[in-house]
Fold each of these.
Amino acid sequence: MRGTVLYGSKDIRFEEVPEPKIEKMTDAIIRLAVSCVCGSDLWPYRGIQSVTEPTPMGHEYCGYVEEVGSTVKSVKPGQFVVGSFAMSDNTCPHCRLGYQSSCQQREWVSRAQAPYMRVALADGTLVPTADLPSKGMLPSLLAASDVLGTGWFAADAANVKKGSTVVVVGDGAVGLLAVLSAKQMGAERIIAMSRHEARQKLAREFGATDIVAERSDAGIARIKELTNGIGADSVLECVGTQEAMQQAIQSARPGGFVSYVGVPHGVELDGQQTFFSHVHLHGGPAPVRRYLPALIDLIVKDKIQPGRVFDLDIPLEQVAEGYAAMDERRAIKALLRP
Amino acid sequence: MRGTVLYGSKDIRFEEVPEPKIEKMTDAIIRLAVSCVCGSDLWPYRGIQSVTEPTPMGHEYCGYVEEVGSTVKSVKPGQFVVGSFAMSDNTCPHCRLGYQSSCQQREWVSRAQAPYMRVALADGTLVPTADLPSKGMLPSLLAASDVLGTGWFAADAANVKKGSTVVVVGDGAVGLLAVLSAKQMGAERIIAMSRHEARQKLAREFGATDIVAERSDAGIARIKELTNGIGADSVLECVGTQEAMQQAIQSARPGGFVSYVGVPHGVELDGQQTFFSHVHLHGGPAPVRRYLPALIDLIVKDKIQPGRVFDLDIPLEQVAEGYAAMDERRAIKALLRP
């Protein structure tokens, strides 16, 4: 079969790769219904994260179970499943406390931009839907696998609740779905930071009440102005840069909550600054598995449409165009159809 | 009157200073019952924090109201009061949300190692006791003013609750009272990190179930060993150095809580490390005012004896010896009697 491999900066190839096989009794093989390109794929694509060898790409997935290992009990061939980018046993102490993305047996998914993939720890990782989903529901179920689960974690980790004043830093797919998540959790005011018209529009449709186009000190000043000089209860940092993190910390009120869900690149926190800011900080790779059953339920009941972040829909073999479109911000997120 | 002034590294003088006066209608003047030397006073005393001019010292206090400004309503002359090192109006948005040490009108106390002092924002800052306390109770009430309130915040900010496994990094007065606080909040296991015999003993008396003398990587390994490889639910960092912070972050389980309550000196956090550690981080200058009524109540009812951290009891005029004894770790904490 052919799959996606990154060779170096801006060098994505769709080429012959080995077909996945059951390697352990706990594995499953799935046929992907849809896959996509993630904002985090752009770090190595842009050369910000070095690529030392040809690297198979893709970690967002949903699809049909083709085959399972001999000990797999909770899913069976023919079922439709969604899993997280972090494969987890869902039984270790970290998983039981809701941190499946720090599972003691954790493995990262890395070959999902392909027609078939192997899922390790299938019993812990995969969540089946009750029925086979309609075609129209596939993009939203795919979003649950990472961007929605990550946006949801951003809102949860920043303690968003009924009545909260929320700021979302970052207007990528995760930031936009963090807006949707904050809305679902009852936030009263959701301020999206964005200077991109199409993204501002989608943010408003997902629940943003205010848009702030300013950045850095001007952006912080604008947030203070919008919150009567107090700062926000919750700030969701969905980028992963030093600038975004500074924006987030300084936009929160003392005692407020800052979450950060994009892998930090070059982020250093000054101890005294975070100390006197009085903020709560929590983040990390989103424990998407914790939220999957609830998110799938919301999607299947059509209460949320996270799949709307996909504004480019192309055949899998055109994956290189998906990367390029996202890199150049021509697309928010590229859906790939095997 | 004579008060305490720091002139430079290791140069503490007890010398003539102006008597405090009511400067604003919201002020009060109190006669100190007792005062003390704080671990944080050692930063400038040791020259780690520069001293550019003669600096009046002391920020822990309790005593008798002598005089109040014309608008002060909640305390009156003759009453015994306890206040926090952060003076606050207790009515601004940050105060109402429990972060009085980030009050919009905040002022820092800085002249408490003296017989009399001025307290700003008296209505918001001072909490009177129902009756005049016994002499034996004074050290514990003084502790409530900072070290107990700070240890309590450490436990609260690190989400300590019934059944928690807790690690306390730092065996100064704050660390020891963080142990006491964790015990009060129902922690099941409290691991105190200390290599000092007298402090280990007091930690055990305050509720520590285990003592770890190892530091750095060996200390982290020992915590992992004591927690079945999982890490602690809550880690209370009561020092303020890079080593202590690293110890704390690496001792917590994924999803665990790290609090930090000592002003960080030279602490830098690596974004990727905190991200993948999956910890919650919260700290800052303790909002002691939030806890004062409850802490005073526990002390007056003799349910806790935080004053036991004072193992040196000297006349105020010998304040220089108090600093020296704490600097050389001959004393945990020096009580000063005006």
Amino acid sequence: MTQELSTQENVAETRSGQPRAALASVTPFRVMSVMQRAHELECAGNQIVHLEVGEPDFSTAQPIVEAGKAALDAGLTQYTAATGLAALRGKISERYRLQHGLEISPERILITPGASGGLLLLAHLLVGQGDGILITDPAYPCVRNFIKLRDASPQLVPVVRAASYQPSVEDLMAQRTDATRGVWLASPNNPTGTILDRSQLSALSAWTRREGLHLLVDEIYHGLHFVDDLPSVLEVDDSAFVVNSFSKYFGMTGWRLGWIVVPEAFIDTARTLAQNMYISASSIAQHAALAAFEPETQVILDSRREEFRRRRDYMVEELTALGFVLPQEIAGAFYVYADCSKFSDDSEAFCKRMLEEYGVAMTPGTDFGDASARTMLRLSFTTSMAQLQIAIARLRAALA
Amino acid sequence: MTQELSTQENVAETRSGQPRAALASVTPFRVMSVMQRAHELECAGNQIVHLEVGEPDFSTAQPIVEAGKAALDAGLTQYTAATGLAALRGKISERYRLQHGLEISPERILITPGASGGLLLLAHLLVGQGDGILITDPAYPCVRNFIKLRDASPQLVPVVRAASYQPSVEDLMAQRTDATRGVWLASPNNPTGTILDRSQLSALSAWTRREGLHLLVDEIYHGLHFVDDLPSVLEVDDSAFVVNSFSKYFGMTGWRLGWIVVPEAFIDTARTLAQNMYISASSIAQHAALAAFEPETQVILDSRREEFRRRRDYMVEELTALGFVLPQEIAGAFYVYADCSKFSDDSEAFCKRMLEEYGVAMTPGTDFGDASARTMLRLSFTTSMAQLQIAIARLRAALA
């Protein structure tokens, strides 16, 4: 992000109709133009298979919907406390106890307007201007942009298939500079679907502690995992920062609800930021989310996870057979991060051709990073098995 | 906001359990501790009259609630476009045409997660590190804090009762520096309830244009005004920035929904920021808000405004009789910004005594500014006439 704007240039900008030059590096997502083009093709009468969307195709589970309606009937339409409903924070705390054997005080849990709101709050809490933050390449594109919006530098750590697209301490050390203040990771990761196991988390935690760097882990795909043991970073590091979401496993995208966990000493400042930045998350969404922890809801959500597992298994088998190179294990989330170098050395052109000529919408790897992004693409299995079968048949025809 | 953190200090901060020192200037609202203490007193069996809360006491109007429930029944729980539902942007555009005779393209309107989300987006769009932004003293406290969060400087422009607590061009010129990039105002203003008329807006617009400064006006209390003519800044300045909200006139606080209007040339960058910062506003809230523009809803909302007008008239008469000095005209919003210097030269102590000894919760002026804040306080008329009468009786007893 360029910092050297002269006074005169900056004065002129906002009245000359030019947004701040510093914002030029905050890029729109390529997936948006894919979606836009797919929509145009559909309007022209084409049948498009959507493998570009990062949103579960299930609408919100009925018990959560009913709880939302009950909240509306009860007139629960006022602001809540900035940190969220105590009852909801209690449910989340209980989930950490049941799933991870952790005692996380509800005080350390702040309800946020989506994981986006949580990440934005943590960016303000943790990142000052000029700071460097180590993130993986590839990673969820907003992460890069949140760091840039803080007038700080994302320090990209290339990760490779052989290491399940997750970094080692050595990888981080290689990119670390004097400006480095923290490490932001994701497990499961978007776009790769790969996770950090307990020994990896321990090593990363130990190194960041030793170096005085903060450690933030995006755990928004927790619950949507296909392995028996998916540790939270909090199991090995009580002073790590976590962002989580009701959008993915809990299927509440459009409600805009998430949470963060912060260490004890950060609670007051995080609360002040929440008061300022968003007053409170949606009261209706919070009351509805209380129902997400009911056993009947869990049955629904777990059966959806099993549907995602079936789709993953199908996609992995078929895409591998077609010649794509996939991660060794997609342990969570609903993405296949595929190497298409057998077919193209330009994933943007490849995605464009598959969309225009075969009606299969996918996201080029360039949304997620720089290193080897040009031969990578992301396919979401957030559409029905029937649609996935059509997609595979079309890709097979295209690549024959 | 202090910028001179040494590298070593900054490294140590996030692992030593200390939030960034730069955040120390982002202050919690005093109203929060008033609310907290009022709650404690209530738990101990006291009857507290709440004049501290900046939230309408009406729950959301039934047609909006029903539309929200219908959206849930229809499964409309997915993300919307980052800029919001086209239908909702169309309704807002139509409102500008009907109320202000303005043609504002729906493309220029972005739906945001509350006015908070809108202001936060505009802060990122318009404010770079080191910039100065002219704001009034007093003003809504978040405004100051949003500017500080951008590592920029709020440049306080003291405004006085004789000028209806709104600034003249000369007032702005007196505080303007080489670092100044823009002017952020509010009409109606929180805490003063005063407005900028058309000639004031024209003069401010002409000056900011001439000086190359952007002009942003918070119009979130539009609709909740008690004068016949309340102009939008867009009537005199097509390249101004506006933030508005569904929380106040539309009574949708807990839903978290607002909007911003940006000039044509800023649409793309604003959309990119929206994609990154919050993906979309709540889909349920957006679908519900469509019903806010229906004639049957407008009847309800307008009758609520008339109730606020009755409360205002009552409070103005009674508080003046008690010896408080009020603005010459409270033209909108639901606050009385009262000078209590006849009774105290320390409004924090005064508010504390009124709460502890008389059970009347009010917000000290120090939440809103520095200049003369120590003899000012804010009383909200967001509680019933019966409660207001109890408050006045208690204040009368206290001040006898």
Amino acid sequence: MKIRNYTRVERRDAFLKENAKGVSIRVAISEEDGAQTLTMSIFELDPDGYTPLHEHSHEHAVFVLRGSGKMIDGKKEHILSKDDVVFVPANQKHQIKNTGDSVLTLINVVPICK
Amino acid sequence: MKIRNYTRVERRDAFLKENAKGVSIRVAISEEDGAQTLTMSIFELDPDGYTPLHEHSHEHAVFVLRGSGKMIDGKKEHILSKDDVVFVPANQKHQIKNTGDSVLTLINVVPICK
């Protein structure tokens, strides 16, 4: 069992700068902790930050810890608020933008099924 | 893509009453949402609530949203505080107790690898 406060996990840039802005990641659970079937990361988006519009073959679960923003699926925009849960299916285009005045903090969980 | 505030998800008893007390669950992401490789649930433990001491073959990731408590692995006790991330390996005994005066709220993610 491994317990640590996410605020003490190293924070680093999450995406290449060409297609994202002001997004950092803290990888809180990964293979390094012995996890074989999931990762849990905390993303922080600056007030004007956004992720790339991207897609991947794994599903993921997102939880909005604090802040406000929107999730874009390539067509529609969905408002994100504190305590929202988001399910992103496999191969679904998605982009997250911070629309508020404070940091948008998200928990992101990805299952790793081999 | 599916987005909803966890507070609007139906809340029900999480465990049998014989070996747990005051624990409810809101299943926020499951097969019903099209998820094939994970579930995300929110657990709420009343101030004197506790889960059973139990184990299972899947790993899980826990995030402490609010409140305080302890995680027991069958031998040692570990303090749980807001913003803590917990990795519970497969087949690791674990029990959670609320040690505070308010509700202990936890996000629980379980990967489902078939």
